[in-house]
Amino acid sequence: MLERLVYRSTASREMDPRPLFDLLTQAQERNARLGITGHLLYLRGQFTQCVEGPTDSLDALWQSLLRDPRHHSIELLVRRPAEARRFPEWSMAFSTDSTMFVHGLKGFFPVDGSGNSPLVGLCSV
């Protein structure tokens, strides 16, 4: 069964481009192995992530997220069955302020001054 999970959390510390690049590279590799696709928004010290995949894969990812020291105050916004993937091309697409762009990062979609990105609407709860 395909499911979608959306959560919000607070970064344990302000993320610079290099730690964000490392986080995203790790997430892209792990998600590809687990059959998970999704989008991560990082803005003003807050993460909002929408992931989709098989139930067992999302269970494993969720347990990993709960133990990850890079964020805290994790709030599950929604978890429900999904009829189709919203991010079929991205093991982890990413949006943040355009000044945080790291050259060579696949799936980067900058946010504008009001915090909007082409992909953020796909994560709406």
Overview of the molecule:
It comes from Ideonella paludis. Residues 2-93 form the BLUF domain. Pfam families: BLUF (PF04940). This is BLUF domain-containing protein. Strands 4-1-3-2-5 form a 5-stranded mixed β-sheet. The chain is an alpha+beta fold. A hairpin with a 2-residue loop joins strand 2 and strand 3 (46-54). Helices cover 25% and strands 32% of the residues.
pLDDT averaged residue by residue? 84
Q: Which percent range describes the beta-strand content? A: 25-35%
The parts where pLDDT drops under 50 for at least 5 residues are none
Biggest β-sheet: count, sense, barrel?
5 strands, mixed
CATH 2nd-level architecture: 2-Layer Sandwich
CATH topology: Alpha-Beta Plaits
Write the element-wise H/E pattern from the N-terminal end onward: EHEEHEE
What is the CATH top level name? Alpha Beta
Q: State the helix count.
A: 2
> What's the number of extended β-strand segments?
5
Q: Name the shape in a single word.
A: globular
Radius of gyration: 13 Å
State the domain count.
1
Give the distance, in angstroms, between the N- and C-terminal Cα atoms: 19 Å
Structural class: alpha+beta
Quaternary structure: single chain
**For the largest beta sheet, what order do the strands appear in spatially?**
4-1-3-2-5
Helix content: 10-25%
